[in-house]
Specification:
The chain is an alpha+beta fold and 465 residues long. It folds into four domains: 87 residues, Uridine Diphospho-n-acetylenolpyruvylglucosamine Reductase, domain 2 (2-Layer Sandwich), CATH 3.30.43.10; 112 residues, Uridine Diphospho-n-acetylenolpyruvylglucosamine Reductase, domain 3, CATH 3.30.465; 115 residues, 2-Layer Sandwich (Alpha-Beta Plaits); 91 residues, 2-Layer Sandwich (Alpha-Beta Plaits), CATH 3.30.70. Helix content is 33%, strand content 21%. β5 and β6 form a beta hairpin. The chain starts with a helix and ends in a 15-residue tail after the last helix.
């Protein structure tokens, strides 16, 4: 423990109490980021305590990393400095919920599964079917910027966040937005926090617009011999009157992932046999509505699939959807569990460029003899998993070469590619955040404004911010 940390210990202990302050190595190991361990961990119980902790840390120039369930600490670069793990798990309360107005305010540490139960009792939900949903918290979901298969219909989290409370690097409690669907409150500063990995502020409270639960759901999986046919199906669905909740194209190797033991451990609901196979590209779509509407959707989907040359089409009923949807939602955790050195790229391109980027992913992986799998959302977001069999130097060099080729291809296609997950030891050899961005100077200015002492998750974001 550094001299500065020792100096801050009495104040930190006073703020949270001895029971919520720890320097025990076994407990601190749970907060490690890329093999970097903090000196202390604190568990505040309110926004005011968070602000006091930040002010105490700022006085001693101690670096803070906020966290909750710690499911996404492996994202981003290693922190330049890491003194205090700020565990927000005790901030797990529903502050206010008005089902009639479709508005909700919660603390950042509330688990997603707990929030889901609260909303379901009133026939509502948040379209945040994100990875690690069985353990993740709402704050970690927002701060990491992970997305959901439901973005096809509902958009991303920034589309239904109404407002937010966060603590700046100076320990100031700041509020932006509001609690109602329509409000006029100036700039939406809170949206800067989405995906910032805690480098601009520490999320304490978040306000959402909620949505009614669907009356009924039905899903479809169509298999094709080529990626062209699967993408043609995607395009035809997009151009039709149909309005799917989800729409993805899966590479043939996704079948091996989704039927693996790793997948069964992460998503306990079974996947119906033989609906995916390792020799076919698959197009999947889900719909919501009344029975009559879903029957019409099924007829149109089957007609479109036949026109596109599908080799098979499977309709999934209510009892089969959880296993299939859960695997799409948990694609990243499944890939991470499948390979000891799984490296995940997140690529954004225009939907019209999906074929090009999928071809580049396949070529890059096969050139290095690396097993791979890809899940492409209908709106142009692709998750590519490179799945080497070991973490040795040879595998690292192959993954680095393939990833660089994919990132260069994304840039040529006027897109962007980052590497949210990879082995910690490989991060120095990969472009985790992709090429230098044109807006990097503006991003650094924002960091200086929100965190003038550079103590909030320093170094974890793009450009070492």
């Amino acid at each position: 423990m550094s001299t500065s940390t020792k100096a801050a210990t009495p104040r930190l202990t006073e703020i949270v109490g001895e029971a919520n302050y720890s320097t025990e190595p076994a407990q601190l190991s749970e907060y490690e980021i890329d093999e970097i361990r903090p000196s202390v961990a604190v568990r505040p119980d309110s926004s005011e305590e968070v602000a006091e902790i930040v002010r105490a840390a700022a006085a001693e120039k101690l670096a803070i990393v906020p966290c909750g369930a710690r499911t996404k600490l492996a994202m981003g670069l290693p922190p330049r400095k890491y003194d205090v793990a700020l565990d927000l798990a005790r901030l797990d309360r529903v502050i206010s919920y008005d089902p009639g107005d479709l508005t909700l305010s919660v603390e950042a540490g509330i688990p997603l599964h707990k929030l889901g139960k609260v909303l379901a009792e009133k026939g509502q939900f948040l379209p945040l079917a994100v990875p690690f949903s069985d353990r993740g918290t709402i704050g970690g979901t927002v701060a990491s910027g992970v997305d959901s298969p439901l973005r096809q219909f509902f958009g991303t989290v920034r589309d239904f966040i109404l407002g937010m409370e966060f603590v700046t690097g100076e320990g100031a409690i700041t509020r932006s937005g509001g609690r109602v669907v329509k409000n006029v409150t100036g700039y939406d500063l809170h949206k800067l926090m989405i995906g910032s990995l805690g480098t601009l502020g520490i999320l304490t409270k978040i306000n959402f617009r909620t949505f009614p639960l669907p009356l009924g759901t039905r899903a479809f999986i169509a298999n094709f011999n080529t990626v062209d046919s699967a993408l043609d199906m995607r395009t035809r669905i997009a151009q039709s009157p149909l309005r799917p909740l989800t729409r993805e194209v899966l590479s043939p190797s996704v079948a091996e992932l989704f039927y693996s033991e790793a997948a069964g451990q992460i998503e306990r609901n079974p996947l119906a046999p033989n609906i995916l196979n390792s020799s076919s590209w698959a197009f999947t779509a889900g719909f919501a509505g009344t029975d009559d509407a879903l029957c019409r959707c099924e007829g149109e989907v089957r007609n479109l699939a036949q026109e596109c040359g599908a080799t098979s089409v499977t309709t999934l009923g209510a009892d089969q959807i959880p296993g299939a949807f859960g695997r799409k939602r948990e694609f990243i955790p499944i890939a991470l569990a499948f390979s000891p050195a799984a490296t995940i790229l997140k690529i954004g391109v225009l939907p019209s460029k999906l074929k090009d980027i999928l071809s580049e992913i396949q070529a890059a992986a096969e050139a290095e003899s690396i097993r791979w799998a890809a899940l492409a959302r209908g709106l142009g977001i692709v998750y590519a998993a490179l799945l080497p069999e070991s973490k040795d130097d040879i595998s690292c060099a192959k993954v680095a070469s393939a990833a660089a080729r994919i990132q260069s291809a994304a840039a040529r296609l006027e897109g962007h590619a980052t590497i949210p997950w990879c082995p910690a030891q490989w991060k120095s050899q990969l472009q985790i955040w992709g090429a230098e961005r044109n807006d990097s100077p503006q991003m650094r200015k924002l960091k200086t404004i929100f965190d003038p002492h550079d103590i909030l998750s320093p170094g974890r974001f793009a450009g070492g911010i």
